[in-house]
Amino acid sequence: MEYRKLPHGEEQLSVLGLGTSSIGAAGDKEIEATMGLALEAGINFFDMASADTAPFSAYGRAIAGMREKLYFQIHFGADYTSGKYGWTTNLDTIKRSIDWQLTALKTDYIDFGFLHCIDEESDLKLAVESGVLDYIQSLKDQGTVRHIALGSHTPRLANKVLDMKVIDLLMFSINPGYDYRGGSSVDLGSENYAVGGVDEHPTLYRRCEAERVGISVMKPFSGGQLLNDRTSPFGKALTEYQCMQYALDKPGVLAVIAGVRNRADLQKLLGYFSAAPEEKDYSILGTFAPQDAAGKCVYCNHCQPCPAGLDVGIINKYYDLARTGDQLARGHYAKLEKKAGDCVKCGHCDWRCPFHVPQSHRMEEIQDYFGS
Ligand code: SF4
Ligand code: SF4
Questions:
Q1: What is the tens place of the pLDDT at every residue in 352-365?
Q2: Is the domain of 250 the same as that of 313?
């Protein structure tokens, strides 16, 4: 397992986290066994926006004696009074739901307390006016909530909450479908490419990285749509490993939270960690992506190997981040053994890049920006 550190905290989160939205139907025994397999594999990050109540008590039993090593995303707005997921903004209902969730999980604290599903201006207004944000904040002051977080599919709203400077983690839907085809899960299926332009999502990811707000990724496979030729918005299927690598390469991303139905699903995802680089290579996207995405480096490193030993993807990522004001990225670049100035202009990356990035020219630009 690989881990990434939460920038505003000490938590080392497994890059593969587990979602609970589709496991409820598996039954208690299978849920516990799946959780057991996850723990054995080193997964320590769990999202609890479940479709029903089943995972809570099963997880509570499976994690006995291990709580301190695990991290839970708990959603202030998910209500399980009926036994199934319901969305609420009523503060009393939220308080009762949080108490119930903690009891079922056999814990007395929350690693990430979420402002849940803030996609519209009105959602944010309600969360503030109904006192939900203040409630999460008060639990944080008491130590019951360790970090405040936000779940959103909409860059504009995510940016608004980032402006408030209260969150340490953003759960955001990241996959090539949403990045290139409509801007948010809500828009998927529209024929319009990327509401706000193909830069809207990358700009948000870079902002998160620059402001040290980690990202946990929801819907990495677009609810499975991307995994099938028929349902993929590109008309061509991608694999789970390509989607995971795509999300994990984005600035700010700490972990991909994938929903599984059972152990077999999880076993398949764990194969990512032993998969060959070619199995994770998502450069085929260069043939699907809209025209205005051409010429923009997505850090995929399909252009490797570079004969001069440059890590083209990472150099480009630090460059893009530094231009947003990220001083750490500047520092990271300074520590690279091979920098843009080491480029020998062989042109190998120019013709290998499926996104048509004129990389040898870009290396000159990067060298000019950072200096020698
Ligand atoms: S130049 Fe192209 S192939 Fe290389 S990392 Fe960037 S997008 Fe990928
Ligand atoms: S043009 Fe520069 S960065 Fe690209 S492969 Fe050649 S030496 Fe490496």
A1: 888 889 999 999 99
A2: no
